[in-house]
Design brief:
The chain is mainly alpha-helical. It has a single domain, classed as ABC transporter involved in vitamin B12 uptake, BtuC. Helix content is 73%, strand content 1%. It contains 14 helices and two strands, in the order H-H-H-H-H-E-H-H-H-H-E-H-H-H-H-H. Strands 1-2 form a two-stranded antiparallel ribbon. The protein starts with a helix and ends in a 5-residue tail after the last helix. 39% of the residues are buried.
Length: 322
Amino acid sequence: MRRATAGLALLAALLAVLPAFARGYALSVATLILYFAYTGQAWNVMMGFAGQLSLGHSLYVGVGAYAAGALFFHYGIGPWAGLWVAILLCVALGLLVGFLAFRFGISGVYFALLTIAFAEFTRIGFDHLDWIGGPAGMFLRVAQRDTWDLANFRGPPVMYYYAMLFLTAGAFALCSFLLKSKAGYYWLAIRENEEAAQALGINTFAWKMLAVAVSSAMTAVAGVFFAFYYNNLFPEQIFHISRSIEIILGPIIGGIGTLFGPILGAAVLTLLSDGITELLGALGWELPGIKQVFYGIVLLIVIVFLPHGIWPGLARKLRLDR
């Protein structure tokens, strides 16, 4: 425990002082790593803890982003008020998906297909909704970015970095608490053998619904961050299945069901993919879709050689697995 605590404190200190050494592009990459680490942790609650495979988590990112973004764009309502609207909408959507699936016994690959279907239905619907710009997109007004305006979530890149660092640290603490709680043990039982969990008297329907609610609420927060960080939203971009794949790759490569897996996986994927993109750009080569090909190769290597992800084996070598 002392070794793990010391390692965690060192990592937190390094991340806290990173903006003093990283500027421009490097800081944006660091922010992107934290974003995928956070969304990976949110997805990990649903799949890694409770064993419910969702391939449509872009649904919650998109609805959360559009909810807060539209309120700000049309009515000038700040992101902090829009955040709660986004969370409520995404939790309601998550519970609807969960109810339809768990009430009628839809599980496994069929549950995954259901989540994809909801994300695609929403993408098509938003693509025909003129109120939010439709396929032309919605562009948020960008104010002065030299100073920190926390009320409207406007400021320089370093502000967004620290905001994402705070969210990732909070998600890590929440997931650590959940794993050691009653919910965590029930989710583990459901993930390993749902029929056995039911035989022990666990209300699997209620606990799975709780996992969906927690995961969708966390992902909604990431959607609000996405809207005010990028300031432009397109249904084809934010609801696309590739967005969901980007979310889940970090936990899969880092280690599903672990605390550090989503963080490590997000760092490995983002650094390597951006490194390859920069290298090809320096060589003057343009290869459309190279990032997706790279994701597939990395996933294949991890599945073959590290089926439990990178973190479990690394933790054993560092004697942190306890």
